[in-house]
Design goal:
By secondary structure, the chain is mainly alpha-helical. The chain has 2 domains: 133 residues, no CATH class; 254 residues, no CATH class. The protein contains 14 helices and no strands.
Length: 393
Protein backbone atom coordinates (compact mmCIF):
# COMPACT_ATOMS: atom_id res chain seq x y z
CA UNK A 1 0.00 0.00 0.00
CA UNK A 2 2.77 2.43 0.95
CA UNK A 3 4.59 2.21 -2.44
CA UNK A 4 1.25 2.82 -4.16
CA UNK A 5 0.65 5.93 -2.02
CA UNK A 6 4.14 7.30 -2.62
CA UNK A 7 3.98 6.50 -6.34
CA UNK A 8 0.53 8.05 -6.61
CA UNK A 9 1.66 11.32 -5.04
CA UNK A 10 4.71 11.40 -7.28
CA UNK A 11 2.66 10.87 -10.44
CA UNK A 12 0.15 13.53 -9.34
CA UNK A 13 2.90 16.08 -8.69
CA UNK A 14 4.63 15.30 -12.00
CA UNK A 15 1.34 15.61 -13.90
CA UNK A 16 0.53 18.88 -12.15
CA UNK A 17 3.99 20.21 -12.96
CA UNK A 18 3.69 19.23 -16.62
CA UNK A 19 0.30 20.95 -16.85
CA UNK A 20 1.78 24.15 -15.37
CA UNK A 21 4.84 24.06 -17.63
CA UNK A 22 2.93 23.26 -20.83
CA UNK A 23 0.30 25.89 -20.02
CA UNK A 24 3.00 28.53 -19.57
CA UNK A 25 4.59 27.45 -22.85
CA UNK A 26 1.27 27.78 -24.66
CA UNK A 27 0.75 31.27 -23.24
CA UNK A 28 4.09 32.35 -24.71
CA UNK A 29 3.41 30.64 -28.06
CA UNK A 30 -0.05 32.09 -28.68
CA UNK A 31 1.03 33.99 -31.79
CA UNK A 32 2.83 30.97 -33.23
CA UNK A 33 -0.16 28.68 -32.64
CA UNK A 34 -2.56 31.33 -33.95
CA UNK A 35 -0.43 31.58 -37.09
CA UNK A 36 -0.78 27.82 -37.59
CA UNK A 37 -4.55 28.23 -37.23
CA UNK A 38 -4.53 31.04 -39.80
CA UNK A 39 -2.92 28.77 -42.42
CA UNK A 40 -5.71 26.20 -42.07
CA UNK A 41 -4.41 24.06 -39.19
CA UNK A 42 -7.40 22.52 -37.41
CA UNK A 43 -7.85 22.52 -33.61
CA UNK A 44 -7.28 18.77 -33.68
CA UNK A 45 -3.93 19.23 -35.42
CA UNK A 46 -2.91 21.85 -32.85
CA UNK A 47 -3.77 19.46 -30.01
CA UNK A 48 -1.81 16.65 -31.68
CA UNK A 49 1.17 18.98 -32.13
CA UNK A 50 1.22 19.94 -28.44
CA UNK A 51 0.90 16.32 -27.30
CA UNK A 52 3.61 15.07 -29.68
CA UNK A 53 6.01 17.81 -28.58
CA UNK A 54 5.42 16.84 -24.95
CA UNK A 55 6.01 13.15 -25.70
CA UNK A 56 9.25 13.94 -27.57
CA UNK A 57 10.55 15.78 -24.50
CA UNK A 58 9.13 13.28 -21.97
CA UNK A 59 10.53 10.08 -23.53
CA UNK A 60 14.24 10.79 -22.95
CA UNK A 61 13.39 12.22 -19.51
CA UNK A 62 11.61 8.98 -18.54
CA UNK A 63 14.54 6.87 -19.77
CA UNK A 64 17.03 9.06 -17.89
CA UNK A 65 15.03 8.63 -14.69
CA UNK A 66 14.97 4.82 -14.68
CA UNK A 67 18.32 4.16 -12.99
CA UNK A 68 17.95 6.92 -10.36
CA UNK A 69 14.43 5.60 -9.73
CA UNK A 70 15.71 2.11 -8.95
CA UNK A 71 18.36 3.57 -6.62
CA UNK A 72 15.72 5.67 -4.87
CA UNK A 73 13.58 2.56 -4.45
CA UNK A 74 16.45 0.87 -2.63
CA UNK A 75 16.74 3.86 -0.27
CA UNK A 76 12.99 3.79 0.48
CA UNK A 77 13.08 0.04 1.12
CA UNK A 78 15.99 0.50 3.51
CA UNK A 79 14.04 3.07 5.51
CA UNK A 80 11.02 0.75 5.66
CA UNK A 81 13.19 -2.07 6.96
CA UNK A 82 14.76 0.25 9.56
CA UNK A 83 11.28 1.30 10.68
CA UNK A 84 10.18 -2.29 11.19
CA UNK A 85 7.40 -2.07 8.60
CA UNK A 86 9.11 -4.54 6.27
CA UNK A 87 10.97 -7.73 7.14
CA UNK A 88 14.76 -7.61 7.16
CA UNK A 89 14.89 -10.42 4.62
CA UNK A 90 13.03 -8.37 1.99
CA UNK A 91 15.13 -7.59 -1.06
CA UNK A 92 14.61 -5.07 -3.85
CA UNK A 93 13.41 -6.64 -7.10
CA UNK A 94 13.62 -4.35 -10.13
CA UNK A 95 12.27 -6.63 -12.85
CA UNK A 96 11.40 -5.49 -16.34
CA UNK A 97 7.69 -5.44 -15.51
CA UNK A 98 8.12 -2.99 -12.62
CA UNK A 99 10.37 -0.77 -14.72
CA UNK A 100 7.94 -0.87 -17.64
CA UNK A 101 4.95 -0.03 -15.45
CA UNK A 102 6.81 2.85 -13.80
CA UNK A 103 8.01 4.27 -17.10
CA UNK A 104 4.60 3.80 -18.71
CA UNK A 105 2.81 5.49 -15.81
CA UNK A 106 5.15 8.48 -15.91
CA UNK A 107 4.75 8.84 -19.67
CA UNK A 108 0.98 8.47 -19.39
CA UNK A 109 0.91 11.24 -16.76
CA UNK A 110 2.83 13.54 -19.11
CA UNK A 111 0.50 12.74 -22.02
CA UNK A 112 -2.60 13.30 -19.87
CA UNK A 113 -1.22 16.64 -18.72
CA UNK A 114 -0.46 17.62 -22.32
CA UNK A 115 -4.00 16.68 -23.38
CA UNK A 116 -5.41 18.96 -20.68
CA UNK A 117 -3.20 21.87 -21.73
CA UNK A 118 -3.73 21.30 -25.46
CA UNK A 119 -7.40 22.26 -25.15
CA UNK A 120 -6.38 25.86 -24.54
CA UNK A 121 -3.94 25.75 -27.45
CA UNK A 122 -6.67 24.56 -29.82
CA UNK A 123 -9.01 27.36 -28.73
CA UNK A 124 -6.65 30.22 -29.68
CA UNK A 125 -8.34 32.28 -32.46
CA UNK A 126 -6.38 32.76 -35.71
CA UNK A 127 -6.75 36.55 -35.47
CA UNK A 128 -4.34 36.49 -32.51
CA UNK A 129 -1.52 36.04 -35.05
CA UNK A 130 -2.06 39.61 -36.29
CA UNK A 131 -1.09 41.32 -33.02
CA UNK A 132 0.90 40.98 -29.86
CA UNK A 133 -0.19 38.25 -27.48
CA UNK A 134 -2.03 39.97 -24.65
CA UNK A 135 -2.14 38.26 -21.27
CA UNK A 136 -5.34 40.13 -20.44
CA UNK A 137 -7.07 39.22 -23.69
CA UNK A 138 -8.12 35.83 -22.41
CA UNK A 139 -10.49 34.87 -19.65
CA UNK A 140 -8.98 34.73 -16.22
CA UNK A 141 -10.50 31.30 -15.57
CA UNK A 142 -11.85 28.82 -18.06
CA UNK A 143 -15.09 27.10 -17.19
CA UNK A 144 -13.36 23.73 -16.79
CA UNK A 145 -10.72 25.23 -14.48
CA UNK A 146 -13.32 27.00 -12.34
CA UNK A 147 -15.49 23.89 -12.05
CA UNK A 148 -12.47 21.70 -11.29
CA UNK A 149 -11.15 24.09 -8.65
CA UNK A 150 -14.50 24.48 -6.90
CA UNK A 151 -15.09 20.73 -7.09
CA UNK A 152 -11.75 19.92 -5.48
CA UNK A 153 -12.34 22.53 -2.79
CA UNK A 154 -15.68 20.89 -2.03
CA UNK A 155 -14.04 17.45 -1.86
CA UNK A 156 -11.26 18.71 0.40
CA UNK A 157 -13.60 20.50 2.78
CA UNK A 158 -15.87 17.44 2.89
CA UNK A 159 -12.91 15.23 3.81
CA UNK A 160 -11.84 17.74 6.46
CA UNK A 161 -15.36 17.78 7.92
CA UNK A 162 -15.48 13.97 7.82
CA UNK A 163 -12.24 13.80 9.79
CA UNK A 164 -13.97 15.53 12.70
CA UNK A 165 -16.38 12.59 13.06
CA UNK A 166 -13.76 9.82 12.90
CA UNK A 167 -12.36 7.91 15.85
CA UNK A 168 -8.93 8.78 17.15
CA UNK A 169 -6.83 6.08 15.53
CA UNK A 170 -4.36 5.19 12.77
CA UNK A 171 -6.98 5.76 10.04
CA UNK A 172 -7.47 9.41 10.98
CA UNK A 173 -4.77 10.52 8.55
CA UNK A 174 -6.49 8.69 5.67
CA UNK A 175 -8.97 11.57 5.35
CA UNK A 176 -7.03 14.46 6.91
CA UNK A 177 -4.07 14.10 4.52
CA UNK A 178 -6.06 13.95 1.25
CA UNK A 179 -8.22 16.86 2.48
CA UNK A 180 -5.24 19.21 2.44
CA UNK A 181 -4.04 17.95 -0.94
CA UNK A 182 -7.48 18.40 -2.53
CA UNK A 183 -7.78 21.93 -1.14
CA UNK A 184 -4.23 22.76 -2.31
CA UNK A 185 -4.93 21.65 -5.88
CA UNK A 186 -8.31 23.40 -5.85
CA UNK A 187 -6.75 26.67 -4.67
CA UNK A 188 -3.98 26.31 -7.26
CA UNK A 189 -6.60 26.05 -10.01
CA UNK A 190 -8.42 29.11 -8.68
CA UNK A 191 -5.24 31.07 -7.90
CA UNK A 192 -5.65 33.62 -10.76
CA UNK A 193 -8.51 35.09 -8.72
CA UNK A 194 -6.12 35.58 -5.80
CA UNK A 195 -3.42 37.15 -7.97
CA UNK A 196 -5.65 39.85 -9.47
CA UNK A 197 -6.14 41.93 -6.26
CA UNK A 198 -2.38 42.51 -6.17
CA UNK A 199 -2.94 45.08 -8.93
CA UNK A 200 -4.71 47.29 -6.40
CA UNK A 201 -1.29 48.15 -5.01
CA UNK A 202 -0.28 49.50 -8.43
CA UNK A 203 -2.00 52.76 -7.51
CA UNK A 204 -0.50 52.96 -4.03
CA UNK A 205 2.29 55.34 -3.15
CA UNK A 206 5.00 52.83 -3.83
CA UNK A 207 8.19 53.15 -5.79
CA UNK A 208 8.07 52.96 -9.58
CA UNK A 209 9.60 49.47 -9.56
CA UNK A 210 7.07 48.13 -7.05
CA UNK A 211 4.16 49.70 -8.95
CA UNK A 212 5.32 48.16 -12.21
CA UNK A 213 5.77 44.77 -10.54
CA UNK A 214 2.26 44.94 -9.04
CA UNK A 215 0.76 45.96 -12.39
CA UNK A 216 2.64 43.17 -14.18
CA UNK A 217 1.42 40.61 -11.66
CA UNK A 218 -2.18 41.74 -12.14
CA UNK A 219 -2.11 41.89 -15.95
CA UNK A 220 -0.26 38.58 -16.17
CA UNK A 221 -2.51 36.89 -13.61
CA UNK A 222 -2.67 33.58 -15.49
CA UNK A 223 1.10 33.54 -15.87
CA UNK A 224 1.69 34.38 -12.20
CA UNK A 225 -0.83 31.73 -11.14
CA UNK A 226 0.93 29.14 -13.29
CA UNK A 227 4.17 29.89 -11.45
CA UNK A 228 2.48 29.90 -8.03
CA UNK A 229 0.53 26.66 -8.51
CA UNK A 230 3.31 24.11 -7.81
CA UNK A 231 4.48 26.26 -4.90
CA UNK A 232 1.00 26.17 -3.36
CA UNK A 233 1.14 22.39 -3.56
CA UNK A 234 4.59 22.30 -1.97
CA UNK A 235 3.69 24.56 0.98
CA UNK A 236 0.30 22.92 1.55
CA UNK A 237 1.56 19.34 1.54
CA UNK A 238 4.74 20.08 3.48
CA UNK A 239 3.10 22.10 6.26
CA UNK A 240 0.05 19.85 6.46
CA UNK A 241 1.95 16.56 6.63
CA UNK A 242 4.73 17.74 8.94
CA UNK A 243 2.37 19.32 11.47
CA UNK A 244 0.01 16.35 11.27
CA UNK A 245 2.90 14.07 12.20
CA UNK A 246 4.18 16.43 14.90
CA UNK A 247 0.67 16.49 16.40
CA UNK A 248 0.68 12.69 16.37
CA UNK A 249 4.08 12.68 18.07
CA UNK A 250 2.90 15.17 20.69
CA UNK A 251 -0.18 13.10 21.49
CA UNK A 252 1.96 9.98 22.14
CA UNK A 253 4.82 11.45 24.12
CA UNK A 254 6.33 9.03 26.54
CA UNK A 255 8.10 5.66 26.39
CA UNK A 256 7.73 3.83 23.10
CA UNK A 257 5.23 1.00 23.15
CA UNK A 258 5.91 -2.18 21.18
CA UNK A 259 3.60 -2.45 18.22
CA UNK A 260 2.66 1.24 18.32
CA UNK A 261 1.54 1.87 14.73
CA UNK A 262 1.94 5.64 15.07
CA UNK A 263 5.56 5.32 16.16
CA UNK A 264 6.31 2.92 13.31
CA UNK A 265 4.71 5.15 10.70
CA UNK A 266 6.45 8.35 11.85
CA UNK A 267 9.75 7.84 9.97
CA UNK A 268 7.82 6.68 6.90
CA UNK A 269 5.65 9.80 6.95
CA UNK A 270 8.73 11.98 7.19
CA UNK A 271 10.28 10.08 4.30
CA UNK A 272 7.15 10.56 2.19
CA UNK A 273 6.94 14.28 2.86
CA UNK A 274 10.67 14.68 2.16
CA UNK A 275 10.30 13.03 -1.23
CA UNK A 276 7.17 15.02 -2.04
CA UNK A 277 8.95 18.25 -1.13
CA UNK A 278 11.88 17.21 -3.32
CA UNK A 279 9.72 16.44 -6.34
CA UNK A 280 7.67 19.61 -5.83
CA UNK A 281 10.83 21.70 -5.56
CA UNK A 282 12.05 20.34 -8.91
CA UNK A 283 8.71 21.26 -10.51
CA UNK A 284 8.82 24.76 -8.97
CA UNK A 285 12.38 25.43 -10.17
CA UNK A 286 11.70 24.13 -13.69
CA UNK A 287 8.53 26.22 -13.98
CA UNK A 288 10.19 29.40 -12.71
CA UNK A 289 13.30 29.06 -14.87
CA UNK A 290 11.22 28.38 -17.99
CA UNK A 291 8.87 31.28 -17.26
CA UNK A 292 11.71 33.74 -16.63
CA UNK A 293 13.71 32.77 -19.71
CA UNK A 294 10.71 33.42 -21.93
CA UNK A 295 10.56 37.03 -20.76
CA UNK A 296 13.79 38.05 -22.49
CA UNK A 297 11.92 40.10 -25.09
CA UNK A 298 10.03 41.94 -22.35
CA UNK A 299 13.29 42.66 -20.53
CA UNK A 300 14.85 43.95 -23.75
CA UNK A 301 11.89 46.26 -24.37
CA UNK A 302 12.17 47.66 -20.84
CA UNK A 303 15.90 48.25 -21.34
CA UNK A 304 15.19 50.14 -24.58
CA UNK A 305 12.65 52.23 -22.63
CA UNK A 306 15.49 53.52 -20.41
CA UNK A 307 15.10 51.00 -17.58
CA UNK A 308 18.42 49.94 -16.09
CA UNK A 309 19.44 46.35 -15.42
CA UNK A 310 19.09 46.98 -11.71
CA UNK A 311 15.53 48.26 -12.12
CA UNK A 312 14.51 45.26 -14.24
CA UNK A 313 16.10 42.87 -11.74
CA UNK A 314 14.36 44.65 -8.84
CA UNK A 315 11.01 44.43 -10.66
CA UNK A 316 11.39 40.69 -11.22
CA UNK A 317 12.48 40.19 -7.61
CA UNK A 318 9.37 41.98 -6.32
CA UNK A 319 7.17 39.94 -8.67
CA UNK A 320 8.79 36.73 -7.43
CA UNK A 321 8.29 37.76 -3.80
CA UNK A 322 4.63 38.61 -4.44
CA UNK A 323 4.06 35.28 -6.20
CA UNK A 324 5.74 33.39 -3.36
CA UNK A 325 3.67 35.32 -0.81
CA UNK A 326 0.41 34.40 -2.56
CA UNK A 327 1.49 30.76 -2.74
CA UNK A 328 2.42 30.71 0.96
CA UNK A 329 -0.95 32.16 2.00
CA UNK A 330 -2.95 29.72 -0.14
CA UNK A 331 -0.70 26.81 0.84
CA UNK A 332 -1.21 27.64 4.51
CA UNK A 333 -4.99 27.59 4.01
CA UNK A 334 -4.65 24.16 2.37
CA UNK A 335 -2.48 22.90 5.24
CA UNK A 336 -5.12 24.06 7.72
CA UNK A 337 -7.63 21.73 6.05
CA UNK A 338 -5.37 18.89 7.23
CA UNK A 339 -4.09 20.11 10.57
CA UNK A 340 -7.19 21.73 12.13
CA UNK A 341 -9.56 18.71 12.05
CA UNK A 342 -6.71 16.29 12.79
CA UNK A 343 -5.60 18.30 15.82
CA UNK A 344 -9.16 18.72 17.08
CA UNK A 345 -9.65 14.96 17.16
CA UNK A 346 -6.18 14.21 18.56
CA UNK A 347 -5.83 16.94 21.19
CA UNK A 348 -9.11 18.86 21.31
CA UNK A 349 -7.37 22.03 20.10
CA UNK A 350 -7.51 23.47 16.55
CA UNK A 351 -3.86 24.50 16.85
CA UNK A 352 -1.52 21.76 15.67
CA UNK A 353 1.35 20.70 17.90
CA UNK A 354 4.82 21.41 16.69
CA UNK A 355 7.54 24.07 16.74
CA UNK A 356 6.96 27.42 15.03
CA UNK A 357 10.38 27.19 13.38
CA UNK A 358 9.09 24.34 11.21
CA UNK A 359 6.50 26.59 9.56
CA UNK A 360 9.01 29.43 9.28
CA UNK A 361 11.45 27.02 7.61
CA UNK A 362 8.81 25.99 5.07
CA UNK A 363 7.95 29.63 4.31
CA UNK A 364 11.59 30.65 4.16
CA UNK A 365 12.40 27.68 1.95
CA UNK A 366 9.59 28.61 -0.43
CA UNK A 367 10.85 32.18 -0.79
CA UNK A 368 14.46 31.02 -1.11
CA UNK A 369 13.51 28.50 -3.79
CA UNK A 370 11.69 31.17 -5.80
CA UNK A 371 14.57 33.62 -5.55
CA UNK A 372 17.25 31.06 -6.42
CA UNK A 373 15.29 30.02 -9.51
CA UNK A 374 14.33 33.54 -10.63
CA UNK A 375 17.16 35.96 -9.86
CA UNK A 376 20.10 34.09 -11.50
CA UNK A 377 17.95 33.36 -14.57
CA UNK A 378 17.03 37.04 -14.85
CA UNK A 379 20.66 38.10 -14.47
CA UNK A 380 21.58 35.73 -17.31
CA UNK A 381 18.78 37.08 -19.51
CA UNK A 382 19.89 40.68 -18.88
CA UNK A 383 23.36 39.93 -20.25
CA UNK A 384 21.82 39.83 -23.73
CA UNK A 385 21.84 43.19 -25.52
CA UNK A 386 18.30 44.67 -25.61
CA UNK A 387 18.15 44.77 -29.40
CA UNK A 388 19.31 41.15 -29.60
CA UNK A 389 16.69 40.10 -27.05
CA UNK A 390 13.97 41.66 -29.21
CA UNK A 391 15.13 39.96 -32.40
CA UNK A 392 15.67 36.58 -30.71
CA UNK A 393 12.11 36.42 -29.31
Amino acid sequence: MLPAILGGWTVAIVAFGVVSTVSLTIQHREQELALLRSIAATPRQIRQNVVLETVIVALPAVVAGLLPGVALGAVVLGRLVDGGLVGASTRLSAGWLCVAVGAGTSLAAAVAAALISSRRAASIPPVRALGEASPSATRLLSRARAVGGLGLLAVGLSLAAGTLFMENGPLLSSTAGPAGVAVAVGLALLSPLAVTPVGWFAHARLGATARLAARNTRVRARHSAGVASPLILLVGIAAGTLYMQSTEDGAHRGPAVAGDVGAQLAPVNYLIVTMIIGFSAIVVVNTLVAATRRRRREFGLLRLSAATRGQVLAMVTVEAAVTAGIAVVLGTVAAAATTVPYSLVKTGSPIASGPAWMYLAIVGGAFLLVMLATVPTTVGALRTRPIDALSAA
